[in-house]
Design brief:
The protein is mostly helical. It has two domains: about 130 residues; about 45 residues, no CATH class. The protein is about 60% helix and about 10% strand. Strands 1-2-3 form a three-stranded antiparallel β-sheet. The protein is rod-shaped and about 100 Å long.
């Protein structure tokens, strides 16, 4: 039984790590860090195309786009970039005008990205916490069952003391505890969240 409890503890640690594997690896730069780089690298020039290309070069960028369901946002900013690039090249917009339009959309998309990322991380944290709680409860229940089985092997020395034979978790989070055997049996129901004593 100790080996089983050790195995459950190991699963708890591994499982806690595994639940975070649903998320892609972080990108090397945030969207605003890419924007800062592109602004500096393209002084007095249009920098939106730099941002698009730098984003595409990130190995996990599109995994995040898919995971956060932001394909429409990516399509919007990609189309905007193409249009602004054409207008700068034709002289219809100055680089500073084009940069202003691109920056407005990028900030809006970044706000949406931050919100969705935080929501996703909170969901993952809750899944991890729920898994850990479940594994902790399972481990405690198995220990209690092990203790109860161990106690079953001991004979009842007097008619007065009864050892815990079995317990059942009720729907309202109380436990039904059965002590003794045959005509020497007694049933006790705990308070909500209570545990069965090892003997009565």
């Amino acid at each position: 039984m100790k080996k089983l409890i050790t195995l459950l503890s190991l699963l708890l640690v591994i499982g806690g790590c595994a639940t975070n594997s649903d998320l892609p690896e972080n990108t090397s730069e945030t969207s605003l860090e890419r924007a800062r780089y592109c602004k500096v690298a393209n002084l007095d020039k249009y920098w939106g195309d730099c941002w698009i290309n730098r984003s595409k070069a990130e190995p996990t960028f599109f995994a995040w786009i898919e995971d956060l369901e932001m394909q429409k946002d990516w399509d919007v900013i990609s189309i905007l970039n193409s249009e602004l690039l054409k207008r700068v090249q034709s002289g219809e917009y100055s680089p500073s005008e084009a940069n202003k339009y691109f920056d407005i959309i990028l900030v809006q998309i970044d706000e949406s990205l931050t919100l969705k990322t935080n929501t996703k991380l909170a969901e993952q944290a809750e899944k991890t916490a729920a898994f850990r709680r479940a594994m902790g409860n399972l481990s405690r229940q198995m220990k209690e069952n092990s203790d109860a089985v161990g106690n079953n092997r001991k004979p009842i020395s007097t008619g007065q003391e009864r050892r815990l034979q079995r317990q059942t978790l009720l729907s309202d989070n109380r436990r039904s505890c059965v002590y003794g055997v045959g005509s020497n049996q007694k049933i006790f129901v705990t308070a909500v969240g209570g545990r069965c004593p090892s003997s009565m």
